[in-house]
């Protein structure tokens, strides 16, 4: 069977986002397919979270970088195995999926239980298609667009496709088998990126701690993990070589006095090498705080949470931008080149130096008080320039290979999205597909479909009153 084959016959669906459906498929509102589950008071169940690409999963409470104090677990909602849970504010991004076990989800989630005619895994695939997520936007409501929520009352009115139940099951089996192949391919490419990054790290780490001249005399740095450094270099704490400002909690509402709505950066916008400004929203910034919170060309942006210490250099990616309380703005003083400082952040971050000093009362936080005490090497400025040039030349082939591999992963993910959309909307007929010996589905391996930089946290979910 060729998987590019269409169904033998189609009829009009009445839906703009999928004009034709295979004969025998229906269109029903979600309220005919799912019931609303609102059950609280199950504090012994595991906490679950959402991945934008792979759905609902059990939260890793042993990973200290993600550990969180759940002081109000009684308010968390029970999702039975097979229920669909979605984040009201993020379903338009794909924050939806079936619960793999009985567990708890944030109050910011809606939990729906499937009726017999609905395979929740099929609907999880459908709900994460680009066309359906656009429909989610239309049915969501809120005071401002950035705070739109898809409440149960709106979700149950949304129309969905309904293939016969055996076809839903077949579609899920086929897509899970394809996901397994895709996940293995993505993992292979991510393993390559890790090897290339480790090579790059060795180059940078040695250059910023020992310099380029192997014959130069060394001296003890006084820092156990830093070891010896060139005799003519200084070792200074960050507060002596840069001005460090931690952003403030901003608000979506205009406050009294002078101020304006401005684009702002969160820790998720801070990615290694360069910032990710594809999803920059606006918040209210008081005029009195603008000078302190505004990012300037050459500043380093440093993540205060998540992957603590993750950094990039700001090169005016946006005309005017500000930071909130999960981002440090680090402005190098004249004795330190921003590029040289960034290379040290990269080496320290990848070697876990920042993670070793964070505050861990709840989730990891790299406070300003901790950050400014971190020691950095300070060669003469001309030597810093020479080291930066050398690093750039040595790392360029590695950077090119990493970029190429990341683009390949992106294309693979785009192919997967297109395949899912075609199959779940009936544009491709997979009824005749039978699994082969290589179509082995490993749930653990499917995790590779997720985005390694994804940072969806309960703190961003809101209070979730529904």
UniProtKB/TrEMBL annotation:
This is Type I restriction enzyme, S subunit. Pfam families: Methylase_S. CDD domains: RMtype1_S_TRD-CR_like (cd16961). Belongs to the type-I restriction system S methylase family. Gene3D superfamilies: Bipartite methylase S protein, DNA methylase specificity domains. Keywords: DNA-binding, Restriction system. It comes from the Bacteria. InterPro entries: Restrct_endonuc_typeI_TRD, Restrct_endonuc_typeI_TRD_sf, Type-I_RE_S_subunit. The keyword DNA-binding applies. Residues 230-409 form the Type I restriction modification DNA specificity domain. Transmembrane segments: none annotated.
